[in-house]
Amino acid sequence: MNKDIKVYNDAQLTNDKAICNLLAKEIDANLTKAENKVWHAHPVWFLDGNPIVGYSKQKAGIRLMFWSGASFDEDGLEPGTGKFKDASVTYNSIEEISIKDLKRWITKSKKIQWDYKNIVKRKGKLERLK
């Protein structure tokens, strides 16, 4: 696990730390070619410089977000409210996490991608990569 992500996870309360550690373990295992780091204060995984998945501590719990998740056509992911293609799920206990769903979403995150890497260059316009 990336040392900065470990520091982030270790800073969480016991319950949230367990959720973060499980998410990091599964994401690392299923996105083996991804770069990962703490970006904008929370853990994020990238493929070719494009953000794919990350999680953060929110008031409601640990929010797992897929940048292109709104295009996954998955009932378990709630689309974001803005103009982007993100979708997320919030966890309050480790028991809420379905490893089967998580693996499926990670697989889709490799196959379905919107180009967030070049969003500034394109003046806020998203284009589909895959």
Q: What can you tell me about this protein's structure?
A:
The structure is a single chain. This protein is an alpha+beta fold and 130 residues long. It has helices at residues 3-10, 14-30, 99-111, and strands at residues 35-39, 42-47, 50-58, 61-66, 78-79, 87-91. Strand 5 and strand 6 (87-91) form a beta hairpin. It has one domain (3-111): Alpha-Beta Complex (Aspartate Aminotransferase, domain 1).
Topology of this protein?
Elements lengths: L2 H8 L3 H17 L4 E5 L2 E6 L2 E9 L2 E6 L11 E2 L7 E5 L7 H13 L19
Antiparallel strand pairs: 1-2, 2-3, 3-4, 4-6, 5-6
Helix pairs in contact: 1-2, 2-3
Briefly summarize what is shown.
With 130 residues, the chain is of the alpha+beta class. Helices cover 29% and strands 25% of the residues.
Biggest sheet statistics: 6 strands, antiparallel
CATH top-level class: Alpha Beta
The CATH topology comes to Aspartate Aminotransferase, domain 1
Percentage of residues assigned to helices: 25-40%
Count up the domains: 1
Low-confidence stretches: none
> What is the average per-residue confidence, as pLDDT, rounded to a whole number?
92
The ordered H/E elements are HHEEEEEEH
